[in-house]
Amino acid sequence: MSRAAPLALVTGGMRRLGAVIAGYLSRQGYALALSGHSDTTPDGELAGILKEQNAEWRCFPADLSQPENAGVLISAVADHFGRAPDLLVNNAAKFGQDDWAAMDGATLEDHFQLNLFAPLLLSKALVNAAGEDKRPSIVHILDQRIVNPHGDQLSYTLSKQALAASVRSMASAFQGRARVNGVAPGLVIETEDYRAGQRSRLNAMMPLGRLPKPDSVAHAVHYLAQAEDVTGQIIFADSGAHLKSFERDFLYF
Fold first, then answer.
1. Is 31 in contact with 56 (CB distance < 8 Å)?
2. Strand order in the sheet with 57-59
3. What is the CATH number of the domain that holds 98?
4. What is the per-residue pLDDT for 144?
5. What is the pLDDT at residue 9?
6. 183 has which bridge partners?
């Protein structure tokens, strides 16, 4: 009897970095559960990879800003595939533009719910669903700014710093029930807000002389998924950006 492919749940897995991670995992032989707030169709490149790999996959729309939906999502994935995920990639995130003056209770609540509470509640639900016989891998997608923060996107930054702090705490709390790690990317995919020529300037600012590639993040996720003796660790996939202090977000350079 052939062994079932390992199963990964990637939140925010239909678009941008989440889609890159999902596509990379598919090429490594993973079956995929992909969640998005309302997305039901993967972006074009990911769709091509899933077809090329003849991948086993399904989309699970979920509003993770609502705490009760974390357990619902894990149950839906386990019911569909007949098993709990072997890997949870907490990639979905809210990225607002507030500074300290604009920050208020609502901005903090919105960011912490999706960027901190949802990953923690998903992790808890996964460990419960996996039972004592399995040791799932949990990988949080963080941000290189957790080391040298600046004042832009403050609620987002605070929520990612809290999620980074949770890596060691949850790895210790779960003990042998799960491995918990993080990957902290730099700027891997620009938005439409970036201007022509900006990438060249930013490349020159990185210690490695270039911005990191999205596949570097996906590779780090896959490494942590396979590294059975590694827990409580954070890998920076950022071309060394965390080694420097930037006064503002990369968008403003």
1. yes
2. 57-59, 31-35, 7-11, 87-90, 137-141, 179-185, 234-237
3. 3.40.50.720
4. 98
5. 98
6. 141, 235
Which of 168, 136, 160 lies closest to 234, judged by CA?
A: 168
Domain extent for 155 = 7-252
Question: Residue 201 pLDDT more than 90?
Answer: yes
Residue 58: its H or E element: strand 57-59
Residues 6 or more apart from 48 whose CB is under 8 A from it?
A: none
Nearest to 61 by CA among 104, 14, 95, 105: 14
Asked whether residue 95 is assigned to any structural domain, the reply reads: yes
pLDDT for 4 equals: 86
In a domain, 71, yes or no: yes
What is this structure's pTM?
0.96
Question: Residue 35: what pLDDT?
Answer: 97
Is the pLDDT assigned to residue 2 strictly greater than 80? no
How many Å apart are CA 96 and CA 24, to the nearest integer? Answer: 27
Give kind and range of the element (H or E) at residue 181.
strand 179-185
Encode pLDDT of 45-85 as tens digits. 999 999 999 999 999 999 999 999 999 999 999 999 999 99
* Cβ contact 31:7 at 8 Å: yes
CA-closest candidate to residue 146, choices 128, 160, 129 = 160
Q: Is residue 1 part of a domain?
A: no
Q: Are 250 and 200 in contact (CB under 8 A)?
A: no
Per-residue pLDDT tens over the stretch 113-122: 999 999 999 9
The tokens for 167 are: 């890596």
**Nearest-5° angle of CA 235, CA 219, CA 80?**
105
Domains contained in the chain, number: 1
Inside any domain, residue 2:
no
